[in-house]
Description:
Number of helices: 10
Structural class: alpha/beta
Domain Zinc-ribbon: 4-76
Order of helices and strands: EEEEHEHEEEHHHHHHHH
Shape: globular
Pfam families: Peptidase_Mx (PF15887), Zn_ribbon_DZR_6 (PF10005)
Protein name: Zinc-binding peptidase
Strand content: 5-15%
Organism: Bradyrhizobium zhengyangense
Number of domains: 2
Amino acid sequence: MKEFQCPSCREPVSFEHVACANCGTQLAFDAACIDMRKLGPNQACRNREIIGCNWCVEGADWYCGSCRLTRTTPDLGGTRNIMLWRRMEEAKRRLLYDLRRLQLPLVSRSGAQVTFDILSDDVNPILTGHLAGVITLNLAEADDVEREARRVAFREPYRTLLGHFRHEIGHFYWDLLVNSTTFQAPFKLVFGDETQDYQTAISTYYSRADRSYDRRGFISEYATSHPWEDWAETFAHFLHIVSTLDSLAGLPLSLDGRARQTLTDPYFESDFEALLALWVPLSRGINELNRSLGMSDAYPFDISPAVKGKLHLVHMAISAFRDQQKLAA
């Protein structure tokens, strides 16, 4: 994510800040112009006090554009659930920032709005997933201990809240960017036949004893379960890449001219090879820094030629969609 500045003193502020640590100015993120500004009268989201939402409202709305997308909130009877919901909404706002930068809509071709159900499994088990634009997330995933236990149980090298959001929205964008478009045939060629029975494929995936998989062909083990999941995993990794490169743009590093050109706006970089040329050494560097601090790799994945081809298809589908939208405007 790009670096923001306090509109009063110009000191750096983070995407989550509600106030400048240097001068105390109350801050609000304006999603329309993708920038931080002073919080004006009647601009505070109603969730600002309860979960620290720092997005400003639009017009006479009580809630900001991010909070309005949460269709169902968890039971807020206890402080723990409020804390976990806060983490959920912080991750969701980062996802929406990604989508805004990519100029991807939050409505389907039929006009259905993307919405989020954030549910607690205190009574009934909640499965994180996507169905027709509705993204359901289990509140327990915001608990670091619970999420780490699930990561180990499912033998996943990486499991984060933001990763969940980016993966599930990937299913929505398969419908928008690939299904019934000129990219459907290339998708079948690169990812496989998505018409195979989904529930059977998922059941087979979870019941198999052998957890080994072709690491040259898939970005993760879960990507092997079905072509739709392979797309969602790959879409999430594309967002990981452009978002991290966007953060790199604000660091005091010595880069060549082509790299600086890419970092002007990684979300709009038309040359996929230029993105990867920056990402590969950056991801290795991040991992080495983590190891120096005694931490696990931040990006424990290798981008093989096959995975590179899949990422490239995601990039092409997004770029083609934007071009079509410009022509239609």
